[in-house]
Amino acid sequence: MTQIDLAWGVGPTARYEELAERFRAVFARIRASAVKRDLARELPHAEIGWLKKSGFTTLRLAEKDGGFGGNLPELFNLLIELSAADSNVTNILRPHFGFTEDVLNSAVPEWRHTWIPRLASRELVGNGFSEIGDTKVGTSSTTLIRNGDHWLLNGSKYYTTGSLFADWINLGGSDQSGEPVGAVVPRRAEGVEVLDDWDGFGQSLTASGTAHFSNVHVAPAFITPPGGRFRYSTAFFQLVHLATLAGIGRAAADDVARLVSERTRIYSHGNASRVAQDPQILQVVGRVRSSAYAAGAIVLKSAEALQRAYEARERADVEAVNAVAELEVNQAVSVITGLVLEATTILFDALGSSATKQGLDLDRYWRNARTISSHNPRIYRDRIVGDFAVNGTPPPGQYKVGLA
Q1: For 29-67, how does the pLDDT look when each residue is reduced to its tens digit (9 = 90+)?
Q2: Domain Acyl-CoA dehydrogenase C-terminal: where (predicted)?
Q3: What is the average per-residue pLDDT within 116-121?
Q4: Which residues neighbour 36 within 8 Å (Cβ) at sequence distance 6 or greater?
């Protein structure tokens, strides 16, 4: 059935349904085993392989380059659908799609010519930017030092989502002068070790743990060109999280509706002889579904702003367009977060105590949503939006975390 038939709304483009149909069988296959994987803590290596084989990871590449020529609203709508299958998988692919945007926006032809064929051949890219411990805000203890005809990489990263599944790791560090420098290194290069030590109570299958780099040789061709990441990167990475939340909401809505329709036990003080006819229960189901619908609609509206930012990448007004896109995403953060956290809580009000059984794994929806929502605190987004509304203050640039 189409997205319209299921009352989730029309897709972002006229061709969306045709594009989405290429991947929906894979999404369904991923969703069928999601509970089993979560309960057994079984990492989705096979599922990532299915998506690579389908070409999903090449979505943003032009058709002439071996991709599907997808625009950003199409990407984010598909990420909602994928997240309804398994939000862990979307999180794993987040760095890859971000790196793809880096390549598409790069002003260095050689960099594009190096990476577009690799991405088209369905090689996957993970990330290595965040550090924990005593690293100060805006700095990196990881070093990339020039050593003759190559560079030497040393250090450790955390929150390396995607890297355990990847062919390459996109990372940042400091050079011998303390200046920022980036590189893309082979995941299986000598001296690279990626650990599955992420222990969050949600998104537990993303392998967002530690990566160690010990005297890793990096060829000059794989040192990232100067200039930083693509301009709308902060908004992009946050919107992936929001699309993931919208997908979690959609999956929770589907599950609570199904379980209510199957339920035979009733309460003596209920309102009908069948739970499926109890108006109070139906109200809860409707509220969960409406929250998921609203979250998805807001994601797609924000994705339109990112598409405008992408199209403005070579225009004189690029900074203004990017600032507006960042503000639109910030305006979406608290609303979507609140909708989905509430929806994944109140769904239990439509069910009995049997809904708390581990075998159903319904609590994963709240756990995953709460974990995603904790990555970038929503309280700051409200302040940024308010400061713009009152004082005309533009949003800050790249967000960083570390010691004061």
Answers
A1: 999 999 999 999 999 999 999 999 999 999 999 999 999
A2: 240-375
A3: 98
A4: 42
> What are the tens digits of pLDDT across the range 169-190?
999 999 999 999 999 999 999 9
Angle at 141 between CA 138 and CA 146, to 5 degrees: 105
Specify whether the CB–CB gap between 1 and 288 falls below 8 A: no
> Which superfamily does CATH assign the domain made up of 233-391 to?
Butyryl-CoA Dehydrogenase, subunit A, domain 3 (1.20.140.10)
> What are the backbone dihedrals phi and psi of residue 157, each rounded to the nearest 5 degrees, phi first?
-130, 160
β-sheet bridge partners, residue 143: 154, 174
DSSP 192-240: EEE------SSSTTS----EEEEEEEE-GGGBPPSS-S-TTHHHHHHHH
Could you please state the CATH topology (level 3) that the domain comprising 127-222 is classified under: Butyryl-CoA Dehydrogenase, subunit A; domain 2 (2.40.110)
Q: What's domain 16-124's superfamily in CATH?
A: Acyl-CoA dehydrogenase/oxidase, N-terminal domain (1.10.540.10)
| pTM (2 d.p.) | 0.97
**What own/partner pairs with CB < 8 Å and gap ≥ 24 does 11-16 have?**
11/74, 11/77, 12/71, 12/73, 12/74, 12/76, 12/77, 12/300, 12/303, 12/304, 13/71, 13/73, 13/74, 16/74, 16/77
The residues, ordered by sequence, that sit 6+ positions from 277 with a Cβ below 8 Å of its Cβ are: none
Contacts for 357 with CB less than 8 Å, ≥ 6 apart: none
Gyration radius of the chain over CA positions:
22
Q: Could you tell me if 306 and 351 are in contact, meaning their C-beta atoms sit under 8 angstroms apart?
A: no
Q: How far apart are CA 119 and CA 106, in angstroms?
A: 14
pLDDT at 25: 98
End-to-end CA distance of the chain: 52
The residue among 222, 229, 163 whose CA lies nearest residue 197 is 163
